[in-house]
Amino acid sequence: MNFAEEILNWYHINKRDLPWRTTTDPYKIWLSEIMLQQTRVAQGMPYYHAFVESFPTVADLADAPEEKVMKLWQGLGYYSRARNLHATAKKVAYKLNGQFPDTYKGLLGLKGVGDYTASAIASISFGRPEPVVDGNVYRVLSRFFGVDTPINSTQGVKYFKELAREVMHSSEIRDYNQGIMEFGAVQCTPQNPNCMFCPLSESCQALKTNRVKELPVKIKKTKIKHLHFNYLVPVSPSGATHLRQRTSKGIWRNLWEFPLLESEKEPTLSEIEAQLDKFPVITKVRTVFRFNETPIVHKLSHRHLHTVFWIVKLKDELKDGISFSKAEEFAVPVLIAEFLKTFKNSYF
């Protein structure tokens, strides 16, 4: 059995109709690859269409205000991707005459572009014989060849990259790379892979040795940290509120949010009230009450955020207050966007 040929044959029959599959434009390939990092196709598709419509070219994206880019990205998560996307667009548009590098090495020089993304763009847009190795490819290769080297170990990363290069179809690299990723996403899935109707089943080592559920092997490294986010939502007599921009490094940098109290455990109402004077914008408080009884759990890769919104009714107007309708126009984390919709409908 020729592994690469079987992947190509399967792909030509089963490939999904996706918009970035009908083009070799490096801008659109790059856009789709950045968006689909740690994001499912179904979730990323509307964002891809929105970005292409708003920014048809890399120059359009480069010229856009950061606020607009972040607002369009809202809800897609991992916001550093959006900031890197904007920075790279500016580099390509302003320093590279609007042309993406056409080699793997050149693409690695772009912010937010690592081994996988550089290989994907180089092969799909420019036909360079560069193997892609993403989560889907790790799974297909480890199962088919029966490799139990951890995919997130230094040895594993090197081994699978070499194996991917060894078995790739160089002359049809565009379709092959998309094919093996598609095969992992649709056929050789993490849970309940369709082994019964798999064209590779006769030679699949994991299937032969009953190890499909065990492969690929991944070392568990991260310990989840639980944090409590307490958003203080000022509400003036006229119904105005206040947002501030998150400037600290880390999650949601440059996004807008309500005044925030972070804690390692869930605070009581009296504990919240005792800390209100930390925020100059919150003065002459009339009353404070909890909006959501059950904390909203927002799961990030290394942290789970247990979020409660506290409504802080004020006696006086806010100096730089904005309406809740206006607040919906700001680029905010998705959990604040959801709160704004719910609060506006229930309060006004």
Describe this structure in words.
It is a single chain. By secondary structure, the protein is an alpha+beta fold. The chain folds into two domains: 3-208, Endonuclease III, domain 1, CATH 1.10.340; 225-347, Nucleoside Triphosphate Pyrophosphohydrolase (Alpha-Beta Complex). Helices cover 43% and strands 13% of the residues. The protein has helices at 3-14, 26-35, 41-54, 58-63, 66-73, 80-95, 104-107, 115-126, 135-145, 154-167, 173-186, 205-208, 269-273, 324-327, 334-347, and strands at 225-235, 240-241, 244-245, 256-257, 260-263, 285-290, 296-299, 303-314, 322-323. Strands 1, 5, 6, 7 and 8 form a five-stranded mixed beta sheet that branches. A two-stranded antiparallel ribbon has the order 2-9. A two-stranded antiparallel ribbon has the order 3-4. Helix 1 packs across helix 11 and helix 9 (135-145) packs across helix 11. The mean pLDDT is 94. InterPro entries: A/G_AdeGlyc_MutY, DNA_glycosylase, HhH-GPD_domain, HhH_base_excis_C, HhH_motif, MIG/MutY, MutY_C, NUDIX_hydrolase-like_dom_sf. Pfam families: HHH, HhH-GPD, NUDIX_4. Adenine glycosylase active on G-A mispairs. MutY also corrects error-prone DNA synthesis past GO lesions which are due to the oxidatively damaged form of guanine: 7,8-dihydro-8-oxoguanine (8-oxo-dGTP).
The tally of strands reads 9
For the record, the CATH class of the largest domain is: Mainly Alpha
What low-confidence regions span 5 or more consecutive residues with pLDDT below 50?
Answer: none
Number of domains: 2
Number of helices: 15
Q: What is the H/E string?
A: HHHHHHHHHHHHEEEEEHEEEEHH
What is the CATH architecture term of the largest domain? Orthogonal Bundle
Helix coverage percent of residues? 40-55%
Largest sheet: 5 strands, mixed
Give the distance, in angstroms, between the N- and C-terminal Cα atoms.
Answer: 66 Å
Could you say which overall geometry the principal axes of the C-alpha atoms support?
elongated
CATH topology annotation of the largest domain: Endonuclease III, domain 1
Oligomer designation:
single chain
The CATH homologous superfamily of the largest domain is termed Hypothetical protein, domain 2
Rg over C-alpha atoms, rounded to the nearest angstrom: 24 Å
Please tell me the overall pLDDT: 94
User: Which range does the strand content fall in?
Assistant: 5-15%
**Structural class label:** alpha+beta
